[in-house]
Amino acid sequence: MKLSLTPTQYFDLTGKPLVSGRLKVYLHGSDTLADTFILSGNDFVQGPNPINLDAAGEQQNTVFLEASIYDVEVEQLVDGQYAKIDDFQFGFNVPTVKNDTIVEGIAGLKEANPQLGFVDVVGYDNYVQCGLRTFIWDGNCTVSEDGGSVIASDSTENGRWLLLSDLREMPSNYFGVKAGHEANLASFLTYQQTVGTYGIYMPPVPRFLPGDYATEGTLFTTKVLSFDAGARLTKAFVLCPAIEVTPAPNYVGDFQFTNQKVAESRWFRRVSKFWSCGAFELHQSRTNYFEDIDSGTYGSLCATLMHQTVTGVPLVMTGAGILEFNHCNIANYALSTAWRTSFKNCDFTDKFFNDGDWDFGTDVSHRQLVRSTENRLNVDNFADASAYVLQQAANGATVLDMLGRHIGLVSASMPFRSIRNAIIGELHANSGMALENVSCALTYLENKYQTVSTKHCTLGIIQADVGDWNDNGSSLTFACDIDTTYTQVNWLDTAVDLGLHRMGRASDDLIYQKTVVLWGCTVNNGVIASSRPVVLECNIADTMLYVYPCETMIGSTNTWSMSMEIRKNRFNGAAGIAIGANNGLSDHLQGVYECVLSNLAITDNVFNTASQGVTCPFWAGPNLAYRFMQGLTMFDGSNPGYRNKEYFPTVYEYRDNSGNCPRSYGSATADVNVQNLAVVDSWADLTSTMDFANSQLVLYVFALPAIGNPNREQIPASTIVGTEYHVDRRCVTVPYRGKALAASGDCRDYPLHGYLPMCACDSTQPNDMFLCMVGTCTALTGEGINPIGGGQ
Q: Is 484 part of a structural domain of the chain?
């Protein structure tokens, strides 16, 4: 048994607090320092001797000694040396030969003569048996008796019989408590730890002996409790620091802990009390003995776990109560998808909801709630990366970085708006999405109003309903069409395999389409059909580029228009440009043939194509060709059906193309005159002399330099002579040049500012092209030109 030197303040010889003093404890009558002890939990470890006092002269901690008599010296620090200023004796000796008085039970002890000093007691009462134990008489002790460790005498009011025990555990029968006899249970749980003049230390751990204890209500103790195998609290709920349990095949009770390191689920009577017990680690035992597995009702938490660890095999539970984990550490497979759970501020270290659905919990019929906030997730800590995705989705994360990991599915209902460094089995997106370094063979873009940004991705596109699509450096393979009625394409350095599919309007309706911009791309195996393509420095193989007219509104006028910019591309195989091509033009001939062409350019392209690289497939003859190109001519607006020329400013370029395509110069065609237009066959042909009304110089004829040039020499570099030549305020892009024959008969080069379209030569030479410009004169009612030939 142990005696205790409890915290006390000491004073010097002047009555002031003994600053920086100390105590030295000797075995009685010797100069040998005694062994001292301090408590670590409920166990003793080596303590100090000497015992230092603090700046207030106080002994801070309780120091324990084996039961004996000790000499204690009080020392003061003077000029760096300790000097004794006081001494006293402490403790008592337990006699090795005691009187032979043995009494029966507590009643016999109360009747015993205090003069005996020490008495042995056997048994407790007529109902509870317990072994032999020794009590010492302390005549100065006045604490209340508790029926087990402190017993009053029937012969005197002062003094108490105090239990002497070397045990670590206090058996419940020392207090007369066993299953079925529990009247003194509260005293058993709350006895004083040190009592009497010498601070006799009582066994620190109350120990329940085997049996079913039927006490009801809430019990409280500041002590750690011990349970023998078979000891159970069948109705009570206990608040205590911790418990120690001998392995048992069933529960021992329900508890609320303040300092329990590990709690086993097999200890508990009710599953809800296990989750709310407050242990630092909750271990779900492989076998449990719950009398009640109901977790509670939906809408109220079954338990809120804070800064705890959950381990073991998931429990079987009923009910709809929610487990809320906050700052918790969850071990592998310690959670069940059959539970409703909520997470906050958790640091997940491995897979959890590997077979669950991330958005369970919104419907009370489901058994899982994995809504989470402010959780710390690291994909490297997940053996199953898909579980990481589920938890990030439950966490409401909008950015997902998989660090190169494989995942199975990203559903459209997940909140992600940015995914990086991922290998995905199947991806669905119906909101704005940014993908970078993503590989996915089954990609579904499911909202034609969303904006998608892809960068360095490898994607198999199964569905391409998207609004704006910006890409940089990806590889895209299509198993569907892209409807540019609502999809605006802006791709840079993109590798595109259309898979025999179409980028453009899915049907033949000639309606307005969004811009298709391909810059530095490779395009294979499909069709691009658009009224507004911009194709710059691409490699295009086995892919026809159809430039459609579309019906649109310009101001308040319903009209037809067409636009394209096709520069520095290489067309290979079954590729090329078909202008105005559409299979359903028969219902739109009048409008289409009066189409307005705006911002049109075909320059610096190479056509390594099997057939002619630039055609106008629906042109049925010179007259229809003329009508189709009316948008390039200038009418005065007086004739019905003719457009107001102010509506349609046009810049048209066709130059520096090579390969299987029309040339920028060639021989004239004698039989393609349209209406009253005179086409000059040679410089000498002045039969249809025309005056240009707005010229600064009287010119009689304007004709192609290629006309009368049988050797087909290149147009010479221009030399500006006099003033620039203007034609009806229309602008022509340099370097186009024309020659004018002045009234004086000399031929001069002029930079042209005016309307300069592509025109065709005769049908026998479909790949030749010449440039033509005619002006107004009194002899003519209008102007006309010849478009690109289609072999007609």
A: no
In a domain, residue 393? The reply is no
Q: Give the position of tokens 């045990």.
A: 167
Strand order through the sheet with 205-208? 169-171, 205-208, 225-227, 243-245
Find, among 260, 252, 257, the residue nearest to 236 by Cα.
252
DSSP class of 477: E
pLDDT tens per residue across span 595-642: 666 667 888 999 999 888 887 655 444 444 444 444 333 333 344 344
CA distance 174 to 162: 12
Distance CA 124, CA 109 (A): 10
Tell whether 77 is covered by a domain.
yes
3-state secondary structure 238-253: EEECCEEECCCCCCCE
Structural contact between residues 377 and 388, judged by C-beta atoms closer than 8 angstroms: yes
> With contact defined as beta carbons under 8 Å apart, do 760 and 604 qualify?
no
**Is residue 647 classed as helix, strand or coil in its secondary structure?**
helix
Last residue of a domain, one of 194, 209, 224: 209
DSSP conformation letters of 135-167: EEEETT--PPP-SSSEEE-SS-SS-EEEEE---
- Among residues 231, 226, 269, 265, the alpha carbon closest in space to that of 248 is found at 231
Looking at 644, 661, 678, which one is the last position of a domain?
661
* pLDDT digits 0-9 by tens, 370-418: 455 666 778 887 777 887 887 788 777 899 999 999 999 999 989 999 9
Domain check: are 553 and 677 in the same one? Answer: no
Is 337 among the domain residues?
Answer: no
Q: Dig out the tokens for 377 from the structure.
A: 């997730």
CB 415 within 8 A of CB 398: yes
Token digits of residue 385: 């990366």
* Alpha-carbon distances of 762 from 502, 621, 632, rounded to whole Å: 33, 11, 20
Are 111 and 204 members of one domain? Answer: yes
Q: Which long-range contacts does 452-461 make (Cβ < 8 Å, 24+ apart)? A: 459/435
Q: Show Cβ contacts of residue 654 under 8 Å, excluding neighbours closer than 6 positions.
A: 601, 602, 603, 662, 664, 758, 769, 788
Q: How far is CA 497 from CA 524, 556, 712, in A?
A: 5, 40, 41
In a shared domain, residues 791 and 688: yes
Specify whether 641 is located in the same domain as 510. yes
Distance CA 33, CA 49 (A): 7
Give the count of domains, the chain. Answer: 4
Question: Residues 280-291: pLDDT tens digits?
Answer: 999 999 999 999
Residue 562 and residue 640 in one domain: yes
- The CA-to-CA distance between both ends of the chain, in Å, stands at 121
Domain residues for the domain of 641 are 503-661
Give yes or no: residues 111 and 79 share one domain: no
Q: Domain check: are 118 and 186 in the same one?
A: yes
- Residue 148 sits in the same domain as residue 200: yes
Segments of 568-704 assigned E as strands:
570-573, 576-579, 596-603, 606-609, 614-615, 652-655, 658-659, 699-703
The CA distance from 336 to 295, in Å, is: 13
Q: Which residues sit opposite 737 in a β-bridge?
A: 751
Residue 618, CB-side half-sphere exposure with 13 Å CA sphere: 22
E strand or H helix at 255: strand 254-257
Q: Name the E strands within 397-515.
A: 399-410, 418-429, 433-455, 458-472, 475-478, 488-492, 495-504
CB 638 within 8 A of CB 742: no
Instruction: Pick the closest to residue 367 from 311, 303, 295 (CA basis).
Output: 295
* Closest among 531, 530, 527 to 502, alpha carbons compared: 527
**Amino acid type, 202:** M
Q: In a 3-state reduction of DSSP, which class is residue 677?
A: coil
Q: Which of 314-323, 703-712, 743-752 has the highest mean pLDDT?
A: 314-323
State residue 628 phi and psi, 5-degree precision. Answer: -60, -35
